[in-house]
Amino acid sequence: MATATMTAGTAALEPSGPRPKKLTADRVGLYVFLVIAAAFFLLPMYVMIVTSLKPMSEIRLGNIFSLPEAWTIEPWLQAWNSACTGLNCGGIKVGFWNSIRILVPSVIISIFIGALTGYALSLWRARGSNLLFAVLLLGAFLPYQVFIYPLVRIYSSVGIYGTMAGIVVTHTIFGLPLMTLLFRNYYASLPIELFKAARVDGGGFWAIFFRLMLPMSTPIIIVAVILQVTGIWNDFLFGVVFAGRENLPMTVQLNNIVNSTQGEKLYNVNMAATILTALVPLVVYFVSGRWFVRGIAAGAVKG
Amino acid sequence: MATVSIRNLEIDFGTVQVLKTLNLEIGEGEFIVLLGPSGCGKSTLLNAVAGLLDVTAGQIWIGGKNVTWEEPKDRGIGMVFQSYALYPRMSVRGNLSFGLKMARTPHQEIEKRVAKASKILQIEPLLDRKPAELSGGQRQRVAIGRALVRDVDVFLFDEPLSNLDAKLRTELRVEIKRLHHELGSTMIYVTHDQIEALTLADRIAVMNGGVIQQLASPKEIYRRPVNRFVAGFVGSPSMNFVDGTLKMDADGAGFVLSDGTRLSLAGYEFSGTPKDGQAATLGIRPEQVDLVKTSEDATVLPIHLTMLEPMGADSLVWGHVSGTQFSVRIDGEDHVTTPATIDAFFSPSQSSIFDKASGARL
User: Fold this and answer.
1) Do A200 and B50 touch (CB under 8 A)?
2) Is 0.95 topped by the overall pTM?
């Protein structure tokens, strides 16, 4: 009897099946840190959302963390439809559509040109292509404020200053270093035999690009779209300088709404307008978090 | 069908000279294998023939035409790569017809040729699949088919079977040989696998250090290697080498081992007149040694056996000759006791003797 109990006891200790999960002290510490960090970043977001859903009378009480007593979506409608910048009271929707009209051509053109230069630099390796690439990369590290005045002069002399074309060209130029880097590294990571096979098969520069390389580029195009959409949407400086009065993007208009000082500051409307402006990058980020991280990593490896 | 002629070809990568004044004449319908260790320049040579690399000096002629400056597509070549290099987003049919579409071949002609090539390679049921849905062997068939549809004169193979498992490799090797018989095209085949080289080639070019060491039939390369590198590279398990000195005296040619044993070289055909006392290396393949005396003119070789390695059909006996590691291949059914010191026998006419300093065959 005693021996039977002993063997049963050792059998229970015998490792078998899945390893038991233990909650160790360092795990607990890690989670505490992560929760605090998340709260730190989410708190402003929380304040913005509750404020945007309160009437002004509640906001004046100063309890910024309290939930609204009388819920209202009126500030959101006002921000979208009728918020005023100076004398124009068209709401932030004017800026939204301007931003869309800037965004779509800028993203498409900058990615297309970036893919093309990346392809040419990685696979065709013309003489001096490495030098050209180095110069292009240098462009990514220069502060772009130094380009603004020369660009203004160039644009006004060719007649595109303050037009839609002007702002699209600007975004394309400044997107080029990063886009080229992204696509060059992606194409350099593909097996070179693929390119050789296509050349033996008689593919030329354009045929190989359109029929072979572009169809294979889906993952990196997604990354490029994420980077360019967030980058161009969040742009303020180029918009205010180059877009012209008719085409001011959402970010610039938001600034004008928030900073308009006539009468009482409508915090709830300002908060709603800000969230609306931040919504596009936010949606892009939530829909594509996995790709977003890959995009950040993609530029880092294989130079 | 076309001849390929490589004349005084040189290729440099920066300051590194990869190919040194290389000459190679390949006849119509010939199957040439470029064999050598990695980094010997065999793939570089193949890429130069394909037009994928710029040459530093020299000329490449295909079918009597100087193609040194021609684009790959204008050379009448098809190429098969180690990594298959199938276009991943196209179906098998798309892969096969890509080259023809690039050449603006009429639609009906494309269909006819794709049907013919897929019949030869038995890939008809796979035509609408993507490369990712194929096995390794199927992928390589498609890659061969891609060269086949274009009706090329010269096929270039860049280690096509290296990515396949042993069984598939044997199958496709036979298939490539069959294809060569059927098509009669000129084929240049790069490999580091000597079995592939010996089974497929009409002639093998053994390369090392950017130089063709020996260009000859597989039999010749195996029987009469021109230098020590070729002797050591071709053959598995590799040839045994024993150092010693040549002794020319009243008894005829002899080979004196470091421990003083004199081996008779009666029957060996020297290519020149050997010098008495010259330092040399004796090369004997494992299967050229017998543990029992089979012929009268065989030379006695004292050997100390240490270990038996059974390999199925035959066994390998490891041991020492005059302090140098030595292996003997015997029938798998035979048995020897180890360790033991016995007299083995070899016939000098089958062996090879190399100059110790230069490695050249004597």
Assistant:
1) yes
2) no
